[in-house]
Design a protein that fits this description.
single chain; Globin-like; two-stranded antiparallel sheet; 59% helix
Length: 356
């Protein structure tokens, strides 16, 4: 009987499935994937075959657990299907090797169980994915509304105090209004950039980097003065050109600059340098934040991830920055210099030198 065959060879079948899953190149499997997948499925399959039921809700419940686990691990629908396909293949291979007396009806039941499990797992995987996207969108809107409210409240209070004439624009109240307006500008720029990336709106043009970097420098002066940071912009090679969406590229470069101003030590220096290596243009922003805690560099590019004690802002900047660089056919790299700071590098394809 098939259920006896499965019970007697449970360990071997699980081991075979583990080897099949382990051979998968990407993403790497987790132990919990198999815990919620193959062993539970085999146990439910044995019970189903023993009772020879036509309906098998337990299989669906196990598949639901498996679908949830795969989603949290970042697996695709194809991999869900392949996991259950591995079970069927392992059972069939071992039965042939041992010349096990399994009837046609039992194999039909086995295939029916696998079909139902795959259907339930795929359905649950899709449902959980939709829920995850919805929750992420809601969290993003909530953070945006929260930050906008805080900045608008601060600006409104400062404006009322200034309008009464009891304090001067050049004092601390005026500085509060200035910071609030800069914060609002950054939130709007970040949101617009995200919208453009989501909608894949791009206006390609040849961008002269000397002019572009100068525009960025002028725009950054206000933030530099507010943070008591020195901005050092090294000369850009004349005629150096990249092809890019100018608005997205400006937002991409502004973000590491703003972070550098925010996290560098008071009186420190932020350096903006552009240079060429082979057929690539590298735009580097080096700060003096003191370096990052071990293992934290990769997490900075995840949405809602923030560093340092200052938790203002959405924490979306670097995640959007990464997408913006990739949309311009480039790469974004972060190098930690322990005890000194961080170096963000925007790596773009170089175009032919423009005529002088």
């Amino acid at each position: 009987m098939l259920h006896e065959f499965l019970t007697q060879n449970r360990g071997e079948l699980i081991a075979r499935c583990q080897r099949k899953v382990a051979a998968r190149r990407s993403p790497r499997p987790t132990e919990s994937e198999l815990v919620h997948g193959v062993p539970l499925f085999l146990d439910q399959l044995v019970d189903t075959l023993r009772r020879e039921l036509r309906t098998i809700p337990e299989i669906g419940e196990t598949a639901t657990k498996h679908g949830n686990e795969l989603l949290r691990g970042g697996f695709t629908v194809d991999q869900v299907v392949h996991d259950y396909g591995d079970v069927c293949q392992a059972v069939t291979e071992l039965a042939v090797e041992q010349n096990a007396p399994i009837t046609t009806d039992e194999f039909r039941t086995l295939n029916r169980c696998l079909d139902d499990a795959i259907g339930d797992a795929v359905t649950e995987h899709g449902r959980q994915h939709d829920q995850f996207v919805s929750e992420e969108h809601t969290e993003r809107l909530g953070r945006l509304a929260h930050e906008l409210r805080n900045l608008i409240n601060a600006a409104s209070i400062a404006f009322v105090a200034l309008s009464r004439g009891t304090v001067g624009v050049s004092g601390s109240t005026g500085a509060v209004l200035e910071r609030s307006l800069r914060g609002l500008r950054r939130l709007v720029d970040c949101s617009l950039t995200e919208v453009r990336l989501e909608a894949e709106i791009q206006n390609w043009e040849r961008v002269r980097l000397a002019d572009f970097v100068e525009e960025v420098r002028v725009s950054a002066i206000m933030d530099v003065n507010a943070q008591r940071i020195q901005l050092m912009v090294l000369p850009v090679e004349d005629g150096l050109v990249v092809e890019a969406d100018r608005q997205t590229l400006a937002a991409v470069l502004a973000n590491p600059l703003l972070n550098a101003f925010k996290f560098s030590r008071p009186g420190g220096t932020v350096t903006l340098k552009t240079h060429v290596i082979a057929d690539r243009v590298l735009i580097e922003v080096a700060d003096e934040c003191g370096g990052l805690p071990p293992g934290s560099a990769e997490g900075l590019f995840r949405p809602f991830e923030q560093r340092g004690a200052d938790r203002t802002g959405l924490g979306l900047g670097l995640a959007i920055c990464l997408r913006g660089v990739e949309a311009n056919h480039g790469t974004l790299k972060l190098r930690d210099v322990p005890g000194t700071g961080c170096v963000f590098t925007i790596d773009l394809p170089k175009q032919q030198l423009a005529a002088s």
